[in-house]
Amino acid sequence: MLHPDRLFPAEPTTRAVARRLYERVADLPIVSPHGHTDPRWYAENESFADPATLFVVPDHYIFRMLYSQGVALEDLGVPPRAGSGIRIEADRRKIWRRFAENWHLFRGTPTRMWLEHAFETLFGLDAPLSAKTADFYYDTIAEALKKPEFRPRALFERFGIEVIATTESPLDDLRWHRMIRESGWNGRVITAYRPDPVVDPDYAGFRDNLSRFGELTDEDTLTWSGYLAAHRKRRDYFKSFGATSTDHGHPSAATADLGTAEAEALFRRVTNGNTAPEDAELFRGQMLTEMARMSMDDGLVMQIHPGSVRNHNPTLFDRFGLDKGADIPARTDYVHALKPLLDRFGNERDLTIIVFTLDETAYSRELAPLAGHYPALRLGPAWWFFDAPGGMRRFRDLTTETAGFYNTVGFNDDTRAFPSIPARHDVARRSDCSFLAELVVTHRLSEDEAHETAHDLAYRLAKEAYRL
Amino acid sequence: MLHPDRLFPAEPTTRAVARRLYERVADLPIVSPHGHTDPRWYAENESFADPATLFVVPDHYIFRMLYSQGVALEDLGVPPRAGSGIRIEADRRKIWRRFAENWHLFRGTPTRMWLEHAFETLFGLDAPLSAKTADFYYDTIAEALKKPEFRPRALFERFGIEVIATTESPLDDLRWHRMIRESGWNGRVITAYRPDPVVDPDYAGFRDNLSRFGELTDEDTLTWSGYLAAHRKRRDYFKSFGATSTDHGHPSAATADLGTAEAEALFRRVTNGNTAPEDAELFRGQMLTEMARMSMDDGLVMQIHPGSVRNHNPTLFDRFGLDKGADIPARTDYVHALKPLLDRFGNERDLTIIVFTLDETAYSRELAPLAGHYPALRLGPAWWFFDAPGGMRRFRDLTTETAGFYNTVGFNDDTRAFPSIPARHDVARRSDCSFLAELVVTHRLSEDEAHETAHDLAYRLAKEAYRL
Amino acid sequence: MLHPDRLFPAEPTTRAVARRLYERVADLPIVSPHGHTDPRWYAENESFADPATLFVVPDHYIFRMLYSQGVALEDLGVPPRAGSGIRIEADRRKIWRRFAENWHLFRGTPTRMWLEHAFETLFGLDAPLSAKTADFYYDTIAEALKKPEFRPRALFERFGIEVIATTESPLDDLRWHRMIRESGWNGRVITAYRPDPVVDPDYAGFRDNLSRFGELTDEDTLTWSGYLAAHRKRRDYFKSFGATSTDHGHPSAATADLGTAEAEALFRRVTNGNTAPEDAELFRGQMLTEMARMSMDDGLVMQIHPGSVRNHNPTLFDRFGLDKGADIPARTDYVHALKPLLDRFGNERDLTIIVFTLDETAYSRELAPLAGHYPALRLGPAWWFFDAPGGMRRFRDLTTETAGFYNTVGFNDDTRAFPSIPARHDVARRSDCSFLAELVVTHRLSEDEAHETAHDLAYRLAKEAYRL
C-alpha cells in the first residue's frame, strides 16, 4: 500500500526533485518536541493490549469519523464517564471489525495514511483493510504485540526517536518520568509544562487544583505572589525532568498586561468562585504574559495553542467526558489578541513564543506578518485538523512568502497515537520536500538550498526552536 | 469548443486517471435534489420563447457581469418592478447581440463553460460566440427552439434527469406539480418546502403571508400552536407531491432552542408588526429547530443556505426587485450559530441537516470539523459563486482531510437555468474526478477506490442524502 | 540565477503555453499607476549613494525579516526618530555584509526574486549572494552606481517605464514634480492625491495639517465648506501635475453618507481635538464618500487601501517611527463597510473605485461578488504581503470565477524600491501568464484569447482603469 513516491507531486521533473530531497531527510532521527504520548508506556514498557485498544479506542480522529456516520461510541469501546452507567462493547475484536467495515470513510484523510504506514511498516500488512481482512489484521497485530520488539521502548528505538516530549499538568508528580530516569534506559523522554488546570478559571476543578498546586509547592497559592512563586517552583521541577517548553491551550489568543495591583485584584476575583467569563478570559490572557516573564528567566519556550471550542457537544460530554472529538475550531484573532504580550516581550531576542492556529485565515493575514517582524515569535506547524498533506501545503503556501522558512519551527506530531509518529513525520517530510521541489523546478530556489532547507525543516529547526 | 479532456489536470498521468474515472460516471443519470427550475415548464411543456429569453434575461450570473461593466439592465430586457414605468429593450435579438459583444467578460467564469456546453451539445454551435457570430447563434437557437425535441420534457429526458426537485413556498398551491402528475408524463419532478415567506419576519408581506398560510391550512396561524400545525399540514401536502426536503435561506446560520413559553412570546412579538431585528433573527433561528423537530417526525431532509446579504443595492432593488445579482455573501459563523440546533438534534442518526456556505473560510475551520463529528450533519456542495471548478476544488481541498467524502452529499445544481443543468453536473463530475485522480497518482487512494468514490459523488450520495 | 522559465508551471505543456504567452508581453512598457518612489530622484537625477542605501536601508520587506531573526535595526542603518539619541551603524559595507549573511532567510519570498532580478539584470551579478560574495557584490554595485547609466532617469528609461505615479500629501508643494516638468526631460512622472494627513483625525499633526492645508489653498479649512473647497482646489492642483487618481489608506473600509448638517457637526467634533475613536472612523468614512463625489466632477480615480493596523509595535515606533515593518493586516469587512458609499455612487458608470485588501478571505466572499456587480467598483491587484507569485495566484483563483478578468485593473507595483520595479512587473506577468496557461491546457480558454487577456492584464487594463 505504501508507494515510495506517495505524496510527491505527479509531474515527473518535480517528483524527481522531491524524491532526491526526501532521500536525504527520510532517515533523520525524529525530534518530537510536542505531543501527548503517555510517559507510563516508556516507564513500564508493558506490551500494548490489543489492536483495538492500540489503534481505535484512544484515537479521536478515528471515533469522531465513525460517530459522524452513526456508529455509537459505546460500540467502539470508548470509555464513558465514571458513574454514567453506560455499558460499552467489551469484545475488542468486534470493535476492530466495526472499524474495518467503515474503512472507506477515511479515504482522503490523514488517518488513512498514518494507519496504512503503521500497518505495513510495523506488521507487514499490505492488503487493504476491509470487513474481509479485518480478522486477519486483528490476529496479525495481536500476535505481534505480544513480542518484545513491539513494546514501547523497542518501538521508540525502532522509530528513530532522538527525543520526545510529553505534556503534563503542574499537578502531575512526574512519577513516570522519574521511573524512566531511574530505569537506566537511555531513551530521551522529557516533559512539558501545561498549566491550564491551574491557569484557566473555567477548567473543571480549578479551585481544588489551586489547593493541590499549593500543597505540591508549599506556597500559598491563594495569594497572587504565592501563586506565581508556585509556578516558578513547578517550572523548575519540570525542567529537572528535561522540560524545555510550556504549553497553553486557551479558547482564544487573548493576552493581557496588567499592573500588579490590577492583576492581584483579578486573581482574587477568579479565585473567589463564580468567575465572570470576561474575568476568566482576562486572567488566562494575563497568565500568558506572566508565563513569558518567567520564560525570560528560566528559558522555557512558550507554546500557545488557541482557538478550539472544547466539548461542543454537551450530550456527548455528559456521557463520555473530555476529548471525544467534539472540539471545534472557531475564528481566532491574533493581531489584537497578542498585542499586550508582544508590546511587553515581542522584541526580546532570547524569548521564543511559538503560536499555532486552527483558523487558517490567520496564516497569511496575521501570523506570517507578525512572525516576520517580532523577534520573539515563531509559527508552529499546521496543527490538528491541518496536520495532513493539504493542511501542510496551505501552511507553507500562506506563510512562506511573508515569513520565510526560518520563522517556522519544523514539525511536531502533537499526538497521543504512538504508532502514528513515524508516519506523521514522514508525511511532513514528504510534504515539505514536495513544496521545496516546486520552488526548485520553478527556479526560485537552487537544489542545494532546497536540500539544506529540507534538512532544517525535518530536523534542525525543531531542535533549535525548542532548545533541545 | 468542448474538448473531451476539459478541466482534467494537465499532467498526463493524472489526466489519464481522471479520464478513466470520468468515463464511468459521465453518463450516469442526473439526480438534481435541489434547484429552482420552474415546474410550469414541465407542466405545460411549451416551447422556450427565444435565445435571449432562455439564456440571458433570467440568468443573474449573466446580467450581473454585464451590469458590472456598465450595461443597463433595461438594455438586457430584465423585467422591472410593476409600476416602475421603466421601459426595457423589447427586441430580443438586440439583447442577444449585447450579450454576444461582451462575451469576453466571461473568460475564466463557469458561466462561459455552462453556456458553451449548452451551445455545442444542444445546438451544434462550435464556433466561438462574438459580435460577428451573434446573429448566426441567435438564428440557430431560435430555429431549434421551435422543434418538439427542444420542449422542456424532451430536454428533461435528453439530459438524462432521473429526478429533479423544484423549490416552492408553503403558499404555493403546487398546481404545476399537480398538472405534471395528472399529465401521465413519467418524468420525476418533485417539490421542496421553502418556508422563508412565512418563517422570516423580514420577508416582504410576512403578515399577509401568515394569513394566507392560515387559509390554506385551515389553522389559526396567529397562534404559535396553530402556526406550527399549519407547517405540519403543509409539509405533508408537499410530501404528497414528492418533497423529501425543506430549504431555508437565512441571512445567518443562527439557531435557537427556546422553551415553549418563550417561543410563544417571541411569536407574538414577531406577528405584532414592527419586529426588532434581534427578534427576527431569533425567530428564524428558533424555526430551524422547529423544522428539525418536524423532520424527526416526517423524515424531510433539512437544507440550510445561510449567509447572503440580499438586495445589497437599494437603487437596483427599487427599480428591478429581488434576485438581480445584488446578493453578496458575508462572513458566516457556524460553530456558535448552529450550537442550539445541534445541542438538541445533532446526535440524531435519523435526521439529516445539509449545510451550505458562501464563506469558504468556514470549510476547514468549522464545517468539516462539525460534519466530521455530528451524525445529523452533512455538507452541501460548493454553492452559488463557488459552483465552479476552482470553487469545487477548494471545497474538496478544505473538507476532505477532516470530514472525508462521506459526510458530503454529492452535487446539486441549485439553478433556474434549465439548459445549464447537464453542463453543471458535467463540471462537477470532471472536477471530482480530477481531485480523485490526484489522490490516485500521489498514491493516497487506489484506482478501484477512486472509481467507487467517483460514482458515489456523482450519483449515490445525492440519492441517499436526499432520500430519493 | 534568473532562469528564463522561472515561475512557469512545471508541467511541460502548460509551461510551453505560459512561455508563449509571456513572450508577447515580456517587453511591453511598464505602466506603474500607483507607487511610492521619490519624485526627487527623477527631479535631481543624482546617483544613488551605495548598495546598502539603495537596497537595504529603505526596504521594510528586508529589514523586517532581518529584525524578526534578531538583527537590530540600528545595525542595519535604519534611521531612528530625530532626537532619539540612537546611534546607528555608519559603515555601509558592514550593513551590506549583515544582509548578505542572512540571505537564506529570504528563501521562498518575493524579496529574493526581486533582488536577484535587479542584481543580475542591472549589475550582471549571477553568483548567489552570501557572506562570501558580499564584498564582491558591494564593490560591483557601488562601482556601477557611479556611472551615468545608473542615475534615476537612465534607469527609468532602461526599465521601459511609460508612466509612473508617485503619491503625495495635499500638503506637498509638488516641487519635485515641478522641477521634473521644467527640466525638459520627457519621462512621464505624475503625482497622486493621498489626503490621509488632512482626512484622518488620528494622523499625527492632524490639526496643524489642517492649518497648513488652509494656507496652501487660501480656504478656511476649519469650516466644513472651506475644507471641502480646499480639497477641490488641491485636487485640481494635483491634476495639473498629471494626477489621475486619489489614494486612501484607512484602517478599515468603513464608509458613511451623512446629511450635510450631520457632516458639518461631525467635522466640528473632529477638528475640536480629543476626537472619539468612533468619530474618527466615521469621519474617514464620510470623506471617502466626499472624495467619490468630487471624483464624479473631476474624474480622478479612487483607490482604497484598507485594513492595516499601523505601528503594531510601540517600542519600535517610539524609537524608529513610521513604516518600519510593524504594520500588520487585520480582518476587514467590505460588504457592510462599503455599503454607504456604494448606495450613493456604486451604480455610476463614470466613476472608478479601486479596492485593495490585506484580508484574502474577502476575495471570493465579498470583493469578487461586489466587483462583479457594481459598475463603479474594480479590484486592485494582490497587495503588499501578497505581491508575490503565491499571493497573485490566490488573487486570480479567488476572484476570476466570480468577477472575471475585466473587473480587475492589471498590476501596480506599489513600491518605494525603485530597482525592484521591473522585477515586480515581470513576476506579475509571469504569474498571470501561468494562470492563463492553465486555463488554456484545461480547455477553458483558447490560446488566442489568452494572448489577448495577457496583454490586457500586463498593460491595457492599468492604463484604462487609471485613465492614463
TrEMBL record, chains A, B, C:
SUPFAM superfamilies in the cross-refs: Metallo-dependent hydrolases (SSF51556)
EC number(s) per entry: 5.3.1.12
TM stretches of this protein: none
Enzyme class: isomerase
Keywords linked to the UniProt accession: Isomerase
Pfam families xrefs: UxaC
InterPro entries assigned to the protein according to its UniProt record, in alphabetical order: Metal_Hydrolase, Uronate_isomerase
Pathway assigned to this chain's UniProt record: Carbohydrate metabolism; pentose and glucuronate interconversion
Catalysed transformations (reactions): aldehydo-D-galacturonate = keto-D-tagaturonate; D-glucuronate = D-fructuronate
GO molecular function: glucuronate isomerase activity
Entry similarity comment: Belongs to the metallo-dependent hydrolases superfamily. Uronate isomerase family.
NCBIfam families, per database record: PRK02925.1
Protein name: Uronate isomerase
Native organism taxonomy: Bacteria, Pseudomonadati, Pseudomonadota, Alphaproteobacteria, Hyphomicrobiales
